[in-house]
C-alpha cells in the first residue's frame, strides 16, 4: 500500500456542506517512517508538527496504530512507554504528548484525527482513558482493512465521503472497544481462576498438593497457571504455598506445645530436618530458637507490667 496523508482541516476543506453524523474526520494517513530519519518529518503541517523537546498539544482526538517497528510514547498522564508492533495509542484534546520511532527500526503508522459530538460520547467510554492511552491490538486484519477503506474514502473524496469516513472511524473505535472488553474479560477470568486456586492452597496447607495437580483440578495448563499466578500474586505458586506453610508453622510454634516434628508433620513437610532447614532459610532462625525467642520476649514483657 502506498503511503498517504491528508489534512482536511489544514486545507480548509468545507465539511459542513454535508450532514453532520457526529464524527468529523480531520486527517488520515498511512506512513512508513524510514530508519535513521528525524521524526516527525518536515512535511507535517505547522498545526501538527512538533519538536521532541517540546512535545505537542492537539485540539482533536487521534487514533494512531503502529503496524511495524518500535518506538516510545509519552503523555501528560503517563511516563515514557515502549511502543511495540501492534500497539495503538489515543491522543486526546488538550493533553500534552510526544512519540517517535527508534532510529534503528523506524515504524509504519496509520492514523486518523477526528472530533464531533458523537466522537465525544464514544471517547467517554470506560476503555478510552487519557491515563491509559495505549492498547495492544496485535495484528488484526479487519482493523487494517477498515483503515485502508478509510484512507481510500478520504483520498478520492467522492460524494458522501464525510459520512462514509465517519462510519469507518466509528467501526475502528468499535473494534478497539471490543478488543479492550475482551482483554478485561480475560483478566477477570484470570483473577477468578487464580483466586480459586489460592483458596485451594489455603485449604490444603497440611498436605503436599503439587502446583501441577492444582492446575489440573481447575482445568488449566500448568504453564498458564504458573505464569498467571506470578502475574497476579507476584510470586510462584510453590513459593506462595511454602510461605503460607511457614506462617502457619510460626503460629503453631508460638500458640501450641506441639513438638517441632509434629509442627512439621501437620504442615505437610516430609521430615523434621527438611522443615527446619526451610524454616531457617525463611525466618533466619531455627524453629526451636524462634519459639524460645518468642517466649523470652513474652516473659520479658510480663515482668515489665
UniProtKB/TrEMBL annotation:
Stored PANTHER family: ARAC-FAMILY TRANSCRIPTIONAL REGULATOR (PTHR43280), MMSAB OPERON REGULATORY PROTEIN (PTHR43280:SF30)
Species whose genome carries this gene: Pedobacter fastidiosus
Keywords: DNA-binding, Transcription, Transcription regulation
Residue ranges of domain HTH araC/xylS-type in the record: 195-293
Record keyword Zinc present: no
Name of the protein this chain belongs to: AraC family transcriptional regulator
InterPro entries: AraC-bd, Homeodomain-like_sf, HTH-like, HTH_AraC, HTH_AraC-typ_CS, Tscrpt_reg_AraC-type_HTH
Transmembrane segments: none
Top-level lineage group: Bacteria
Amino acid at each position: 500500500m502506498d503511503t498517504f496523508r491528508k489534512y482536511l482541516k489544514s486545507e480548509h476543506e468545507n465539511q459542513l456542506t454535508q450532514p453532520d453524523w457526529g464524527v468529523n474526520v480531520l486527517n488520515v494517513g498511512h506512513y512508513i517512517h524510514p530508519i535513521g530519519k528525524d521524526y516527525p518529518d518536515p512535511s507535517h503541517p505547522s498545526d501538527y508538527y512538533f519538536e521532541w523537546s517540546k512535545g505537542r498539544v492537539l485540539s482533536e482526538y487521534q487514533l494512531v496504530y503502529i503496524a511495524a517497528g518500535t518506538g516510545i510514547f509519552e503523555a501528560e498522564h503517563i511516563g515514557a512507554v515502549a511502543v511495540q508492533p501492534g500497539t495503538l495509542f489515543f491522543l486526546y484534546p488538550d493533553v500534552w504528548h510526544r512519540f517517535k520511532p527508534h532510529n534503528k527500526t523506524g515504524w509504519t503508522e496509520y492514523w486518523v484525527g477526528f472530533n464531533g459530538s458523537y466522537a465525544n460520547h464514544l471517547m467517554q467510554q470506560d476503555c478510552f482513558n487519557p491515563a491509559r492511552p495505549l492498547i495492544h491490538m496485535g495484528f488484526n486484519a479487519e482493523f487494517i482493512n477498515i483503515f485502508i477503506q478509510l484512507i481510500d474514502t478520504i483520498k478520492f473524496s467522492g460524494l458522501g465521503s464525510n459520512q462514509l469516513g465517519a462510519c469507518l472511524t466509528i467501526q475502528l473505535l468499535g473494534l478497539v472497544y471490543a478488543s479492550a472488553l475482551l482483554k478485561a474479560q480475560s483478566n477477570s477470568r484470570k483473577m477468578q481462576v487464580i483466586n480459586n486456586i489460592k483458596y485451594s492452597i489455603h485449604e490444603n496447607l497440611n498436605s503436599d498438593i503439587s502446583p501441577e495437580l492444582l492446575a489440573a483440578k481447575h482445568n488449566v495448563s500448568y504453564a498458564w497457571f504458573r505464569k498467571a499466578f506470578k502475574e497476579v500474586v507476584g510470586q510462584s505458586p510453590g513459593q506462595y504455598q511454602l510461605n503460607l506453610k511457614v506462617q502457619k508453622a510460626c503460629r503453631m510454634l508460638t500458640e501450641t506445645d506441639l513438638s517441632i516434628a509434629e509442627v512439621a508433620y501437620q504442615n505437610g513437610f516430609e521430615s523434621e530436618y527438611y522443615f527446619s532447614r526451610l524454616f531457617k532459610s525463611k525466618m533466619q532462625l531455627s524453629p526451636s530458637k524462634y519459639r524460645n525467642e518468642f517466649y523470652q520476649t513474652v516473659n520479658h514483657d510480663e515482668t515489665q507490667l
